[in-house]
Amino acid sequence: MSKLCSIIKGTQFTKLINSATFLHPTRNFARSHRIANLQTESFPSNPDPSSSKFSTVNEAEILKFSQLAEEWWSPNGPVKLLHSMNPLRVAYMRRQYSKCSEERGENHFPFKGLRILDIGCGGGVLAESLSRLGGSVVGADASWENIQIAKSHALKDPMLHLGPGKLEYRCITAEKLLEQGEIFDIVCAMEIIEHVNNPLEFLRTCAGMVKAGGGHLFLSTISRTPLSYFLTILLAEKILGVVPNGTHDFSGYIRPDEIQQEVQNLKADNDNNATNDSHASERWGAVTDVTGIGLNPITGRWFEFYKWVPKRIQLDVNYLLTARRA
User: Fold this and answer.
1) Which of 28, 107, 284, 295 is deepest in the core (most CB within 10 A)?
2) What residues does Mg(2+) bind to (predicted)?
């Protein structure tokens, strides 16, 4: 314990917390500009860099999660925290979307008729859940291995293909989807923004595919604070080994106020809804909710913080965010 305290109080930890990793993401988050574009149709082993103008894909992150592909659906495997978090994510999305669509409140298929993108879908944990709730879901991931695992798992349950939901998987980047003119009622970017190059550019790309007039963007990620470093990297990775060492990169964490500021600055003339009318230069929309979440170490279940808990505490580590398109 004394060794742990010395690490926390030591100069190396202090330098890390006060270093350039705390600069605003738009200034220096693009640590690597390696391009990794994947063709959707042929799934080539050597992607063509010319397939898209720009990509926020981080090759090292794609390789890391591709190596976990075989264990995506192991409830006690290296991504077990995603499995335990999934019910909370789905419940949050249902509740937030029902605020603008009351007739869906008690519906067994709240996302029926909605086109949903799960970007960075991995093995399809969230995508399958949304499909079961009636959504027409496109699960997209830049890892060919992850997409194959997701497709294979979806075939194990015939109920997934009986409707009303639909499910398809594509090996493709967010930038390529935007380039193809895709538009969705809901775009989900769950536990992915911290794993890309230039997170705020990735956010703009996702926002550009949200349908105008009430479309939703859902995100979940980790805030960049001393506490988040201690809990998610020092404790979870290096000491307890709850997740594989190297899963997270502290410099990729992004605070909720940074996302809120970026959404506030977004314009509607840079997405797939843009037209030539006078409304094209209006603001994209607004963040409508930010909720902090935590993990109960005894039950192993995720929970939302009570509203009376100060935001500075509940948003110090993991959080969920909703943004609504104008």
Assistant:
1) 284
2) 191, 194-195
Residue 266 has pLDDT above 70, yes or no: yes
**What average pLDDT does this structure show over 171-186?**
97
Q: Is 89 annotated as a binding residue?
A: yes
Residue 248, marked binder: no
Q: Does 120 belong to an annotated binding site?
A: yes
> Could you tell me which of 309, 305, 299, 306 has the C-alpha nearest to residue 318?
305
Per-residue pLDDT tens digits for 83-94: 999 999 999 999
DSSP state of 319: E
- Residue 44 resides in a domain: yes
Contacts of 269 (CB under 8 A, 6+ apart): 280, 281
Which pLDDT score, from 0 to 100, does residue 269 have?
64
Instruction: Tell whether residue 194 is among the known ligand binding residues.
Output: yes
**Mind giving me the DSSP string for 53-97?**
S-----HHHHHHHHTTGGGTT-TTSTTHHHHHHHHHHHHHHHHHH
User: Does residue 15 lie in a domain region?
Assistant: no
Report the interhelical angle of 59-66 vs 144-154 (nearest 10°).
40
> Whole-model pTM?
0.79
Residue 14 has pLDDT above 60, yes or no: no
324 in a known ligand binding site:
no
How many distinct structural domains can be found in the chain? 1
Is 105 a member of any domain? yes
Residue among 188, 196, 193, 261 nearest 218 (CA): 188
E-only strand ranges, 142-181: 166-171
Q: Is 118 annotated as a binding residue?
A: no
